[in-house]
Design goal:
Layout lengths: L8 H12 L6 H10 L6 H13 L3 E5 L5 E5 L7 E5 L5 E4 L2 H13 L10 E4 L2 H6 L1
Helix pairs in contact: 1-2, 1-3, 2-3
Amino acid sequence: MQQPRRNTWQREAVRAALVQTPGFVSAQQLHQVLRDAGTTIGLATVYRALAGLSETEEVDSLQSPDGENLFRFCAMPGHHHHLICRACGDTRELSATVVEEWTRRVGAEHGFSDIEHVVDLFGICERCRATA
């Protein structure tokens, strides 16, 4: 059985910074935000805090089209998907019933159960299109 994680000032600082940051950010970007705010937190500590917050599902994580791990404070509990602007990073959390039904059906058609999936959609938001 896994021990519960201690709630340290560093973890709280990472959580607070994510709450204030719109869209997904890399650990390096978040580290810079924290450093700019005057904290002495190290990059390795930011990575550990993000890993812990991901395990407790307090943050969402995804892999960008460039392969970088990105993180965001999770506003929607439970399983969901994201619609992300490639220009500004604006993110919408989505529940997608049609995707859930499709994954169960495809899994069953091939004799699979307990299907897990990740669906993140990347595009350009209306605001960015208007300013382009």
